[in-house]
Amino acid sequence: MDENKKEETFTVKKSTAWMIVSFVFIGLFIASVLTSGFRGSNSDITGNPVIAPQGNQGNDPNGNGVINSINLDDDPKVGSKNAKINFIEFSDFQCPFCRRFYEDSLIQLEKEYIDTGKILFVFKDFPLPFHEGAQDYAESAECANEQGKWKEMHDKIFNEQAKSGQGTVPYPGKATVKQWAKEIKLDSEKFDSCFDSGKYAQEVQKDLSDGESYGVSGTPSFFVGNDKTGYTQIVGAQPYAAIKQVIDEALSKA
């Protein structure tokens, strides 16, 4: 080796290095959520439906897909109670991927499966901690449910956010939500009293705890099936064709 040859080096300032690392992490985060939904470590990274194994294996608190029964208690429901299959959604009203499911798939599900009595649609709240309005939105829908207008409030919340553009829309505050309640013809006095009291705060958090016990780690997440044949989990705002495939398979086993 030529002893006179100087070794070439370069240095990077700490501030520049941190900037590079930050951009890498931001890029990875964006890539992880743009495909189908907000997901955690228990989700299928490919976005494919996670099939629940069959058999009397009970519920799996570790989120490994072994779900034989789901507590439906007094959650809002749409469709026939005599339907052979339950379609259960764990949702966050401020989640843009939940809004995508509402806009792209729910209307088709209503026409083909809910309105025809083939499935019972069940809604469970799963407010994510980084969405400041998710808990309030969930409570407002529960208050609307008291007056038989859960679906009207559900649709109103998502439609109003859609008017503000794509992505996560900032929470407009309780006063605006109360105005929406008036627009869907709710009894304002009863709604405002319910909403301001936090009457359903614990009910919403119970849904969240239930979801975690079934392995839900992001929204939207769905479970399709019944307590007899078990449930298939679908993670993220999947295309309608993928959802339809899981429903049809569940119906064939019911």
Keywords:
254 residues; alpha+beta; Glutaredoxin; five-stranded mixed β-sheet
Approximate shape: globular
Q: Tell me what portion of residues adopts beta-strand conformation.
A: 5-15%
Strands of the biggest beta sheet: in what spatial order? 1-3-2-4-5
- CATH top level is Alpha Beta
CATH homologous superfamily, by name? Glutaredoxin
Q: Please give the radius of gyration in angstroms.
A: 22 Å
Give the tally of structural domains.
Answer: 1
Low-confidence stretches: 1-18, 20-36, 39-64
Helical content, roughly? 40-55%
Q: Give me the CATH architecture, please.
A: 3-Layer(aba) Sandwich
Q: How far is the N terminus from the C terminus?
A: 77 Å
According to CATH, the fold-level topology is Glutaredoxin
Count of individual helical segments: 8
Taking the sheet with the most strands, its summary is: 5 strands, mixed
Number of strands: 5
Would you list the SSEs in sequence order as H and E? Answer: HEEHEHHHHHEEH
Mean pLDDT: 82
SSE-based structural type: alpha+beta
